[in-house]
């Protein structure tokens, strides 16, 4: 089981994950996530092997790509409709309150 990140580590990741106080496996995952986000078609078998060298399974690699893809999908929908995170959270809160 992976350790939870601290608020300080999250702030570092947001600023520059390359300099963040996180383990090398997490940095490799984040580098891969950026590549999938920016240019998924350029992912090569060598990229996958690099992650496997950190002990990641094919199931973990699939999960990483799946999460990155989902976030990209949701962000594009939100961007297309001009949805701000605050708006979404408000709608979610209102929905939860009205549905018990």
Give a description of the structure.
- This protein has 100 residues and is mainly alpha-helical.
- The protein has one domain (7-98): AhpD-like.
- It is 72% helix and 0% strand.
- It is built from five helices and no strands.
- Helix 2 (24-39) crosses helix 4.
- The radius of gyration is 17 Å and the shape is globular.
User: Per DSSP, what share of the residues sits in E-state strands of 2 or more residues?
Assistant: under 5%
Average of per-residue pLDDT values: 89
The number of distinct helices, counting runs of at least 4 residues, comes to 5
The low-confidence runs, each spanning 5 or more residues with pLDDT under 50, are none
Radius of gyration: 17 Å
Quick structural summary:
The chain is mainly alpha-helical and 100 residues long. It contains five helices and no strands. It is globular and about 50 Å long.
Keywords:
single chain; about 100 residues; mainly alpha; AhpD-like; 5 helices; about 0% strand; globular
Summarize the SSE layout with pairings.
Blueprint: H1 7-16, H2 24-39, H3 45-52, H4 58-81, H5 85-98
């Amino acid at each position: 089981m992976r350790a939870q990140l601290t608020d300080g580590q999250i702030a570092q990741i947001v600023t520059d994950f390359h300099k963040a106080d996180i383990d090398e496996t997490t940095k490799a995952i984040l580098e891969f996530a950026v590549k999938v986000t920016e240019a998924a078609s350029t992912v090569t078998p060598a990229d996958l092997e690099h992650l496997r060298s950190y002990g990641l399974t094919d199931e973990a690699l699939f999960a990483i790509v799946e999460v990155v893809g989902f976030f990209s999908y949701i962000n594009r929908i939100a961007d297309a409709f001009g949805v701000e995170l605050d708006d979404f959270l408000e709608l979610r809160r209102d929905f939860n309150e009205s549905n018990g």
